[in-house]
Structures are given as structure tokens and as C-alpha cells.
Amino acid sequence: MDWSLELSFMTFMVASVFIPLALLYFFSMRSGRKLLLPPGPQPLPIIGNMLMMDQLTHRGLARLAERYGDLFHLRLGSLHAVVVSTPEMARQTRKLCVMKLFSRRRLQSWASVRHEVDSPVRFAARRSGSSVDVGDLAFTLAKNITFMAAFGAQSHGNQGEFAGILQEYSKLFGEFNISDFLPWLRWLDLQGIDKRLKVARQAIDRYIDVIIDEHLTNPKEADAQSADMVDCMLAFLGDSGDTEEGGDLHGGLSLTRGNIKAIIMDVMFGGTDTVTLGVEWAMAELLKSPEELKQTQQELASVVGLHRKVNDNDLDKLPYLKCVVKEMLRLHPPIPLLQHQATHDCELAGELLRASTVRVGPAVLPGHAVGALCAGAGDGAACFDWSLAAGTKPRDLDMGDVFGLIAPKAVRLMVVPTPRLTCPLQ
Questions:
Q1: What are the backbone angles phi and psi of residue 59, rounded to the nearest 5°?
Q2: Total domain count for the chain?
Q3: pLDDT digits (tens, 9 = 90+) for 249-267
Q4: Mind giving me the DSSP string for 251-290?
Q5: Domain containing 161: what range?
Q6: CATH code of the domain containing 141
Q7: pTM over 0.85
């Protein structure tokens, strides 16, 4: 009798676990047939392609794209993801940036932020002969330039607070959150990530609201020389400040307050960590290949000379430096993948995607971020001779990266600067 009761209890427990899972699998399969998804690896029941998580780095996804095409589908638990790596779509996204917010005319109006580059140069000059962390130096450069370009001088004193919020956001975005793939566990918040994200989001919303209100209180014409990015975007905001999407302001372009806040976040994420990692990776590649560093410095010496620092007018005359930056971005994309979630059923590159599908594709750096990379790498190579700290040989330099929302060096780059210009650097 006891044995019979024990067997019945075990049967009940097994049924209570597997029947809901079977129903979940059945309904997920039924809903998945509503739309024809792109090709991709065959998913397993319930967990989908989650056993491939260790392969889903930017390099792993590139290998999968060679097999399944520029647009392919992954099912991660109950989450549908579509990986996009089509050159044509990347060109369209970049064109939008080039023609609107990051046009050459707009970049020229931000020339006043160029003096921010002098701050890390002066710091490196004071540390001549001592070990310097290139990542910390580059972060100071990126933070100052991006903050000034986006928000202007009126909010310059608060950039430390905002940088801290961004760093917390970047860390949380890069975390593996089981709730993203198994939504029925979200209410438990097993890792506490959702709570931390909510707190960070509220903090960043409050901060950006203050910035927007400052600009609304002291408005500037979008074409003014002193106008920053927020001033430019507010020119497309309705008089009420609550223009609905789809309005017809300024030739069809209309922005809501929420749109402006989202763009500010994109610019700050795309202009701080990306520039920081870009400068660090560029310096690492040059120090790994001393001949390439020598050729870069020779070009700088012939175009700029040794009597002054690099300025914006020099950049168009430095093709080799530009090639160094472009090759670094090819080898070490600072933000290798960018995720977007479809809010409704839609079509992408001829494929029908269901609502809540996550699109994964390469990030496009803001124009000022790429310019800052050239400026940062150019100043570093022009102003100083560099050697690896602790007697490290170029062939022994660790070039491994850590995959996440961003892809930093696994080991921080420590170098020793020696001034090479004849002009004062401090």
C-alpha cells in the first residue's frame, strides 16, 4: 500500500512538471508557424538553441552567417532572435547618421570640443617615464568629447554622475539574464538584474529629463555655432513637447521627447565605451606591430611635423592613420552586436518577423565617435613614443578579448609614454 502511494505521488510530480512543459512547447510551436522565419540551426524542444550560447559571440555568429545566410533565426528558450549581418542594411543605417545628426557640417560645428583631447595628452606628459593605463586615459578623452558634443558646456559639470550611470547600464546589459530566455521566471528575478535595471533606467531618465529641460529653458537655434546635439533634436520636437510619431514637422521628420531620450542614450553608449576600447585596441595593435607604429609616426611627422599637435584639419591628410582605425574596427568592433526587439509583426529584408523577435546586428558608431578615434590615436602616436610596461615584448602582448555588450581587452594595456614633440605638452 505504501509502495502504491509513493508511486502515485511520483507519477503526480512527474506529470506536474512535464505536462506544463509539453503544453508550453506545443503552443510555442503553434505560434512559431504563424510566420515563416529565416533559416537557422535546428532548435531543441523547450530550450531551443540555448546549448549554443557559448558560440554566440560576434565571431561565432559570423561563422553561422556563412552557413545560414545574412539573415538567420535562433530560438533561445521562448525568445526568437534574428541575426542580421547584411551589408546593404548596414549601409542604410549609416546613411541616416551621415545625412542627419553626424553630417560634416554638424561635426564642424562641434570643433570647440576638440580641445578636450588636450586633457589626456597633458596627463600622459606628466606621467612621462611611468606606467599609464591606456584604457583609463582613453575613457577620459571619450567621456569629455561625447558629453560636450551631446549636451554642451551648460551641463559639463555633471558628467561624472552620468558616466557612472552609463557604466552600470553597460555592465547590466552585458549580463546573462535567464529571464530574457525563460520569461515565466521573470517574476522571480533570480539574479536581481531586472531590479537593478529598473533603478538604473529611472536614474538615467531623471538625468536626461534635466538635460532636456535645461535646453528648453535656454533654447538655441539648431544652426547656431554653439548648438549641441540636443538643440538640434529639439528643433524637431512639437510645440507641446508631446508630438506623436508620424507627425510632419520639418520635412517629415518628427521627434517625441521619448525619441530624443533614446537617441541621447544611444549616442552616449556609442561614444564612450566604443571610443575608449577603440583607442586602446588601436594602440595595442600598433605596439604589437612596431613597424606599423613607425609608419604611422612617419606619416604624422611628414604631415603635421614635430612642432605641434594634430588638429581636425590634418585628419583628411592622414590616410594611413585612417586605415589603422578602420582595420582596428574590423578586427576589434567595440560593440560587436546590437539588439532590437520588434514591437509588432513586421518584414525585414524580405523575411516576416513575429512580434517580440529580437534582431541582432552590428552596431554603427556615431560619426563623432569615429572622428574621436582618429583624433585620439593620432595624438597618441604623434605626441609620444610608447613602450610596453614591465619589459613586455611585442610578441608577448595579450590580444585576447572578453565578449559581452562590449568587447574589451582581456588584459588592460599598460604603457610608458615618452614625449617626442618639440612643443610643450603640459
A1: -75, -40
A2: 1
A3: 444 556 788 878 887 877 7
A4: TT--B-HHHHHHHHHHHHHHHTHHHHHHHHHHHHHHHHSH
A5: 87-419
A6: 1.10.630.10
A7: no
